[in-house]
Amino acid sequence: MRRPPIEPLLEIEKLSTHFDTADGLVRAVDDVSLRIEPGRTVCIVGESGCGKSVTARSILRLVDPPGRIVAGSIRFRSGDGVVDLAALDPGGPELRRIRGKEIGMVFQEPMAALSPVHTIGQQLIEVLRLHEQLGKAEARERAIAELRGVGIPQPERRIDAYSFQLSGGMRQRAMIAMALACRPQLLVADEPTTALDVTTQAQILRLLRTLQEERGMAILFITHDLGVVAELADRVAVMYLGNVVEECDVDSLFHDLRHPYTRALLRSVPRIERRARRRLPTIRGQVPHPQQRPSGCPYRTRCDHVVPGQCDAENPALVSDGLREVRCVHYPTAESIRDGHDLRPEEVVADAG
Ligand code: SF4
Q: What pLDDT band is residue 273 in, cutting at 50, 70 and 90?
């Protein structure tokens, strides 16, 4: 049943972030539209180089030159109004206020994000004093409470530790404490569990889910891992070479998907029930170098369902049936998406190994 529309917290429309390099133009993010409702989780999934991290960094306006937003808007509900983050000065006071206070961020490698010459407490206290105007003693008390809130044992002691004195899991918890200290409405998390072992990864995902339930924040989670998507997502955007190729709710992704790339991604996930010793199918070929993006549909060099004369002519538009969006010549209308046009069997999927 269709839910009544909810005002989005974040609405990205036709966002393009390009890198004009000496070797040519890289369209890292191209015509991407996405929306996140309050309290919900959207996962962006895709192979490396698909543009998912650049999308996250574009929202936060943390794209380094020569990258720049060349088109589109990023409308974020801030206070009583809506601001277009794409139109703000990346180094200006309004964006600095929004980043940290209203939008928190966690990255894959906390060692790169945390200062090695300041203790965890000094960094957390600085965030709290900057955004919440707390006095020193009050900020320290809050910092200890925040560390406790993310499951760091003995926070009264750990607050004076340096990042290199903590384990990978503890560092990521400290990073989450810092990102969420000011109770942001949105957390942008870019592969925050990728560098962690499986047990710690599961603990961090559980922590994020618990904090989300307690605080009602929305999460934009960037990952290449469909297991993480299954754990966390309400909605999923699948990206390939800078484009969103399919956007749908998480159940549809796993049980009623459409786009050939999404199908291939799902086929390449190991499943316990698959016959032992059977080789896992992989997506044939490699993701093309971004400077050698194929004409037409960028997935056509790896796709098993190419329609000659169409797929190489132009990149299909993203078509919506009101519940999901798909970018493929096999789904040119809302009806074709709803009907779930059955693609012919895949005969050219290469085996791994
Ligand atoms: S548009 Fe063509 S090449 Fe692209 S995914 Fe669809 S069938 Fe494959």
A: low
ipTM above 0.90 for this complex = yes
Instruction: Please name the residue whose Cα sits nearest to atom 3 of ligand 1.
Output: 300
CATH architecture of the domain 10-239 equals: 3-Layer(aba) Sandwich (3.40)
Q: Is the CB of 303 under 6 A from ligand 1?
A: yes
Say if ligand 1 is within 6 A of residue 238 CB.
no
Q: Look up residue 219 and give its two tokens.
A: 């999460």
The residue with tokens 């928190």 is 104
DSSP string of 163-183? GGGS-HHHHHHHHHHHHHTT-
Spatial strand order of the sheet with 24-36 comes to 24-36, 10-21, 67-78, 81-84
Q: Is 226 in the pocket of ligand 1 (CB under 6 A)?
A: no
Q: pLDDT confidence of 1, banded at 50, 70, 90?
A: low
Q: Kindly report, as residue ranges, where domains of CATH 3.40.50.300 are found in the chain.
A: 10-239
